[in-house]
Specification:
There is one protein chain. This protein is of the alpha/beta class. The chain has one domain (12-115): 2,3-Dihydroxybiphenyl 1,2-Dioxygenase, domain 1 (Roll), CATH 3.10.180.10. The chain contains three helices and eight strands; from the N terminus they run E-H-E-E-E-H-E-H-E-E-E. Strand 2 and strand 3 (44-51) form a beta hairpin. The longest helix has 12 residues, at 18-29. The radius of gyration is 16 Å and the shape is globular.
Length: 124
Amino acid sequence: MANADGSSLRPRLVVKDAAAAIEYWTQVFGAEEIERYTGDGGAIVHAELAIGDSRIAVKDEDSTDRAPTSLGGTSVLLMLAVDDVDALGERAWCRRAEPSAFRSRTPRRAAAAVASAIRSVTSG
């Protein structure tokens, strides 16, 4: 969703196998693929996904943009708020995500955290 001035921030993730990542995110997170552009050899140079009211972009690794697996890890952690974290966790674990407390690494090694609201807390 864009701000009143039309600006918005959308993460662009670089992975080794963007097609597999898109398939995984579609199955586990209910992502909807909005658009996909491929380059020579079929590499994904840009794909946009909608997850709830958020959008992310993803592309295949190339010589300029490196995937976390090529860099030895990632400094990015995406947080996804859902109504039923247990159901989402079950879908993720069935598709080989590696659980670690409330975080997981998808088969493409992108770090993700999932949360559900338990109650609203206000300061007083």
